[in-house]
Each structure stands twice: as C-alpha cells, then as structure tokens.
Amino acid sequence: MPRHDVVVIGGGQAGLATSALLSRRGIEHVVLERDRIASKWRHRWDSFTLVTPSWQIRLPRGEYTGDEPDGFLPRDTFVGHLEAYARATDAPVREGVTATEVVAADGGFRVATDEGPIDARAVIVATGAWQRPVRPPLGDLARDIREFHSHDYRTPGELPPGGVLVVGSGQSGAQLAEELARSGRDVVLATSSAGRLPRRYRGEDMMLWAHRIGFYDRRADALPSPKDRFAANAHLSGTNGGHTLNLHRFAHDGIRLAGRLTAIDGHHVTFADDLQQNLRAADKFAADLRQAIEAAIRDGRAPDTGSPDDLEDYAGLDGFDAPSLTTLDLQQAGISTVLWSSGFRWDFSWVRPAVLDDWGYPVQQRGVTASPGLGFVGMHYLDTYKSGLLIGVGEDAAHVVDHIADHLGVATPA
Known about the structure:
This protein is α/β, with parallel strands linked by helices and 414 residues long. 23% of the residues lie in helices and 21% in strands. The protein is built from eight helices and 21 strands. The strands form six sheets. Strands 1, 2, 5, 6, 7, 8 and 21 form a seven-stranded mixed beta sheet that branches. Strand 13 (200-201) and strand 14 (204-205) form a beta hairpin. Helix 1 packs across helix 8. It is globular, with a radius of gyration of 22 Å.
C-alpha cells in the first residue's frame, strides 16, 4: 500500500499552494486531483475572466509577475498560470485519482481512492466548498424546455434558439444574463438578494479599495449568522477590461427582472414578489461599501485619492422603475432554456475524522481541526473572507502547513 507523509486532496490553487509550502519545508507528499489541475476553472464558460485583478494572485512562489497587474485574466490564461505554477514548484500531482474517503488508521489516516487506498501521516483537504452544482427542487419543467447549470454552460450559441430564463443574480448569474442579452437573446433574470459592487470608485478599482479597508479580512466569527459564510458573491465583471453590473441597467437595457423563483409547473413558473427588495439589497451593498471607504479615508486608514463623484455604478439609473414579473408562461414568452446559476453544495461527510457543524462545514480554526494531522485549505471563512480567494489562500495554507509540520516533528526553518 502506498504511504506518504502528507496527502493533499485537490489540485486547484489551494492544493497547489499547500504543495508549494510543503515542498519548502521538505515534507514528502502527494496531491490527488480527480480530474486535471485547475479543473474547476476549466469548467467556467468560454468568455469567463477573473473578477479580481491580477495583482491579487498571491500564491506562495506563484505570484502574478506579468505586465498588467490591474488586468483580469481570461479563463484559459489563468488555467495556464496554475499549470505553470505546478511545474515550477514540482508539485507531485496525480491527476485522475478520486479520493472517496478519509478515515483514521494506524495512528494516521487511510485515504480510499478509485485506484486503491493510500496511507498518510497527515491529510490536507483542499477541494474547496463549491463541489456539486445545485438545482433547487422547485418542480419539473416541460420536456421542450432545456435546462443547464452554469457549471455546464459554455457559450450562447450552444443553447437552443429562443429566450433564456437565468435563475440567480449572484456574480455568475448576472454575468451570464449580460452575455446572453448582448448575444441577442431575450433574457429574464430571476433575482436574489445578492449585492453588487461598482467596478471603480474614486478612479481606482473597487478590489483595491476593498483590500485597503480590510473588506477581505472580515472574520467568520464577526458575521451576524454562520449562514452568511455562504452568501452569493456580489455581482461584478472582469470582462472587457472590467466593468460594473447593475440590475437597474439590466432592466433599462431590456432584461426582464423577476423576484426569486419559487415554483415550476411545466411551462409555468412563479416568482416571489420581492424584486424591489432585491434591488434595494444590491443598492445598499454598494452604498455601504462606498460609505466604509469614505470612513476609512476620514480616519486615515486609506488614501484620499480621486473624487467621490468618480463612480462607475450607473447610479443615475437607480430609480429606474423595473416592472416585476410574478408569473410567466415560458412557452408564450418564447423561452426555450432555463440556465441555473443557483450555486454549489459541499459534502465533507467522506472525511470521517472531521467534525461538521450544522451547515455541514468542518469545525476548525483557520483550517486546523481537532483531529491531529487533519487540515482544510481553500474555503471561504476558514478564518476570513479571503481564505478561499487568490489573495488569501496562501496565508491560510501556510498556517495549516505549519501545524502539519509540528505534527510530523519537522523543525521550523531558521
């Protein structure tokens, strides 16, 4: 039976960052990836770009060093970055190997895989939380209506002719609604309470402001509810040099807005009467962040650059009266496709030594669990909001690797 000091499960940015840090400490390990390196990024749609600027790629020994730190990498370019990162760090990745169970065994762990078991002294789970596409059980569509999850969508041209109902106005749903509308499709967008972010404020990218004021450093234990760890990302786009997405602008430009989708019966769908509430929630999110920036400037925690009137948010359209749909006959409306942007679920029940909370999330402290030698990396709010982001995953990985090194008796570097 193969045996390693550490088994890392997951070959995305979290697993590769963890591998680079293990190698730096001289700790023998293997990385198991069920598909290919960066597989989750490969499954994004063809026009996808990162929403965060390239300077936020701060992987250990894998920082962005290109000529456009304020640009937004396209999908394939970023996948290439992660592939090059794996090569540069000699990451011992075994692609096409699926880990199916982790159990305590012989003072360490046994990892069951589709190629046989592997023993390890320590295990670090770096699969992330967005594992399985979700399609809410709201009813059955008529057979002539196609449905896709955003996970499987690639281009407008692959969809049948006709209009599209996009379900969910988080970051992906809003981007896809915009792309489909620009391709000439009639689009209905079932909204949620997701926030929005202006792309630029005071002449600088909002992600820079968010970094300056500590937005990424929000801690899980400071959230109003543990459920807030899993809220949809605010809508924003990195395409075409990066730009703002705004539901009011969508309505102004012809996308029909509805509230939350609540029921499906063949061709008939029903929406909650909460569109105006959702619009206000998106507006408030943007306004609250601008207010936080202004407070940080007044307190000297952020530089006073640009003008508060320099705002890319289509603010003049905030009062646009978007008529709300409450019911819709898809056939009569010419809608042939439902595109679900309804998020993903996680499942860590296969990691037997882990204790899970009421939400099925591992109980841990910054990725370190009560089970010696077992850690998690690459999930939002392991410690802070940035724990699952390119700007923060390396910091948490370093913390977990330090604990694993202590567990293995590896000396701290001088």
